[in-house]
Design a protein that fits this description.
With 241 residues, the chain is an alpha/beta fold. It has a single domain, classed as Rossmann fold, CATH 3.40.50. It has helices at residues 12-23, 37-46, 60-74, 97-125, 146-166, 187-199, 209-219, and strands at residues 3-6, 27-32, 50-54, 79-82, 128-133, 171-178, 231-234. Strands 3-2-1-4-5-6-7 form a 7-stranded parallel sheet, with helices on both faces. The structure holds NADP nicotinamide-adenine-dinucleotide phosphate. The site of NADP nicotinamide-adenine-dinucleotide phosphate (NAP) has 29 residues, from helix 1.
């Protein structure tokens, strides 16, 4: 699988993605922002095939530096997983425009900046896999999610447009849209509305980070070479009923 960069690797889903990619044979650069301990623990668990890097990806210069650093160090980049993200739910009438800008910087523009830096080395290789972490909120948002849903909708449109652009170069671009997954990010919503979420999920439960990671690892694999521009929902059938 070669060299992979996973952003948001200190998060619940990011950690599971790093595990899945290393298991698939990749060397993984694991980016964190404020919490180093989880990625250090991954390196202790998985060994030298995990390389730890810090970056604040709200800054596109830092995002570019991160990707360029991976390419300079390894001379290649086969897989980019844009997993860094945050949620900032509020009703529009009381939300600030600055909240929208902050979330757009992290959930959308950070992925754009990382992809932009990754595209050249991937084109040289005539191979690449880009997987963006979206959300079911882009499709079936809850109340107060206009900010978060907007950023993920943008990310999915970007995914499709980039797939068109990069297909001829042998690079696939896909998104995974998780439902409610048991990580720190969804702690509050699970506490507030857990029963009704389970009730509206065909499988009747929350998902695990490992279940999302399995989908990401598949889309990042060589075997997924004829799949591009897609969003794979890993949501247990959320709001199907
Ligand atoms: N959990 C869910 O239910 C769910 C559902 C749908 C979609 N998703 C999406 O899946 C992705 C991963 O979610 P998760 O549940 O793993 O979230 P999480 O546990 O809260 O992790 C968030 C990750 O983003 C990183 N991050 C935050 N601010 C950053 C910044 N300024 N620069 C760089 N990285 C930053 C965090 O790094 P530090 O901790 O080191 O600061 C962490 O690694 C996100 O894109 C999220 O929107 C999650």
């Amino acid at each position: 699988m070669g060299i992979a960069l996973v952003t948001g690797a200190s998060g619940g889903i990011g950690r599971a993605v790093v595990r899945a990619l290393v298991r698939g044979g990749a060397t993984v650069v694991a980016q964190y922002h404020a919490h180093r301990d989880p990625v250090d623990a991954l390196r202790a668990e998985l060994g030298e095939r995990v390389i730890v890097e810090q970056a604040d990806l709200r800054d596109p210069v830092a995002a570019t530096r991160l990707v360029d650093g991976v390419v300079a160090r390894f001379g290649a980049l086969q897989v980019l997983v844009n997993g860094a993200g945050a949620i900032r739910d509020d009703l529009l009438a009381v939300a600030e425009i600055e909240d929208f800008r902050a979330l757009l910087d992290l959930n959308y523009l950070a992925a754009v900046a990382c992809a932009r830096a990754a595209v050249r080395p991937m084109m040289r290789q005539r191979f690449g896999r880009i997987v963006n972490l979206s959300s079911v909120a882009a499709h079936v948002p809850g109340r107060g999610q206009s900010n978060y849903a907007g950023t993920k909708g943008a990310l999915e449109a970007f995914t499709r447009a980039l797939a068109v652009e990069l297909g001829p170069k042998g690079i696939t671009v896909n998104a995974v849209a998780p439902g409610v997954i048991e990580t720190a990010m969804s702690e509050e919503i699970r506490a507030l509305a857990g029963d009704s979420i389970r009730e509206r999920t065909a499988l009747g439960r929350f998902g695990t980070a490992a279940e999302v990671a399995a989908a990401v690892a598949f889309l990042a694999s060589e075997e997924a070479g004829f799949i591009t521009g897609q969003t794979l929902r890993v949501d247990g059938g959320f709001k199907l009923r």
